[in-house]
């Protein structure tokens, strides 16, 4: 099939089906995400297979996986979809009250338990027709790849050394402290570096493969290691675990302050000298000049500033 004849058979809807099927790795899940009936997605996939001359998605065990050709199509299809969205949104200018842009934010709940609720509230109050998708930062998700592929627009979190190939804006810095139960022995006895190292620590599950987090990354630079006896991927649940155990959570003061009036907890100075935790928002060159993406980044900056100023 000649290139022009092939191009004439492709429309934006077909590209959206292609990207969704390949990323969901399931026709049924893709149908739910697209708001389509499953037979319609199957029919579109058949058309895509005929156009590509490749099965694109094949069965593997109890699930399905993309073929090599399918994998190579994920990033280009994402770029096409995002380019189309930016093309029409920014051509008209971005008017929050009438826009229908989907905002996709990946965020760690290390930042502040109030951050995501207030961000969603601000977006919905100012851009009521814009859908919002909140994505987790997890060990199974490579946020740099997802930014490049258009699966997310923005990442918010803290890193000792943010990736140099992404755009970055600092939100704020915070002091590192320890959160312990109100009756923890550290509240009555000497709380020095030796006691801190011997204590039982709880830490978040790494946000991506190979990540250690800002606390353990700094400890590595000092040639020491703490005694981590518990890990949890849900940072918002950790204070309750600390309140009913001898576990120690070492993190930013702002996060800890949200819980001391709700749970039997105490904030103690950290006897190890840590640099301040730095919180950022990161985005890809792909959305750097987008008017809607700029508006989203301003909302993130605004919410972070308001939380930092709160008593």
Write a structural description.
By secondary structure, this protein is of the alpha/beta class. The chain folds into three domains: 3-73, Winged helix-like DNA-binding domain superfamily/Winged helix DNA-binding domain (Arc Repressor Mutant, subunit A), CATH 1.10.10; 93-170 and 278-309, D-Maltodextrin-Binding Protein, domain 2, CATH 3.40.190.10; 176-275, Periplasmic binding protein-like II (D-Maltodextrin-Binding Protein, domain 2). The protein has twelve helices and twelve strands. The strands form four sheets. The protein has a five-stranded mixed beta sheet, with helices on one face. A three-stranded antiparallel beta sheet has the order 10-7-11. The protein has a two-stranded antiparallel sheet with strand order 1-2. Helix 2 (12-24) crosses helix 3, helix 2 (12-24) packs across helix 5 (68-92) and helix 6 packs across helix 12. The chain is elongated. The termini are far apart. The model has no long low-confidence stretch (mean pLDDT 88).
What integer is the average pLDDT? Answer: 88
Strand percentage: 15-25%
Note the total helix count: 12
Number of strands: 12
Query: Which radius of gyration do the C-alpha atoms yield?
Result: 23 Å
- Percent helix among the residues? 40-55%
Uncertain parts = none
What is the CATH class of the largest domain?
Alpha Beta
Determine the CATH superfamily of the largest domain: Periplasmic binding protein-like II
Would you identify the CATH architecture of the largest domain? Answer: 3-Layer(aba) Sandwich
The best one-word shape is elongated
Largest sheet: 5 strands, mixed
Return the domain count.
3
Reading side by side through the largest sheet, how are the strands ordered? 4-3-5-12-6
What is the CATH topology classification name of the largest domain?
Answer: D-Maltodextrin-Binding Protein, domain 2
């Amino acid at each position: 099939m000649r290139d022009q004849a092939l191009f004439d058979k492709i429309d934006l809807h077909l590209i959206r089906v292609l990207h969704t099927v390949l990323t969901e790795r399931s026709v049924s899940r893709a149908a739910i995400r697209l708001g389509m009936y499953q037979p319609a997605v199957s029919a579109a996939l058949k058309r895509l297979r005929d156009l590509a001359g490749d099965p694109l998605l094949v069965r593997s065990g109890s699930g399905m996986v993309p073929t090599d050709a399918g994998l190579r199509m994920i990033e280009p299809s994402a770029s096409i979809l995002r380019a189309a969205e930016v093309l029409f949104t920014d051509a008209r200018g971005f008017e929050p009250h009438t826009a229908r842009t989907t905002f996709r934010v990946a965020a760690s709940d290390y930042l502040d338990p109030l951050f995501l609720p207030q961000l969603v509230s601000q977006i919905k109050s100012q851009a009521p027709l814009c859908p919002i998708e909140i994505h987790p930062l997890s060990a199974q998700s490579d946020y740099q790849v997802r930014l490049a592929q258009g699966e997310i627009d923005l990442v918010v979190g803290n890193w000792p050394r943010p990736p140099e190939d992404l755009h970055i804006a600092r939100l704020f810095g915070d002091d590192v402290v320890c959160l312990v139960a109100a009756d923890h022995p550290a509240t009555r006895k000497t709380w020095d570096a030796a006691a801190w190292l011997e204590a039982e620590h709880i830490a978040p599950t790494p946000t991506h493969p190979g990540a250690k987090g800002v606390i353990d990354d700094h400890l590595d630079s000092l040639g020491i290691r703490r005694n981590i006896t518990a890990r949890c991927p849900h940072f918002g649940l950790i204070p309750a675990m600390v309140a009913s155990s001898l576990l120690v959570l070492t993190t930013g003061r702002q996060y800890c302050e949200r819980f001391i009036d709700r749970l039997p907890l105490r904030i103690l100075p950290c006897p190890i000298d840590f640099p301040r935790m730095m919180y950022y928002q990161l985005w890809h060159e792909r959305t750097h000049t987008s008017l809607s993406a700029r508006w989203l980044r301003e909302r993130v900056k605004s919410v972070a500033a308001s939380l930092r100023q709160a008593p």
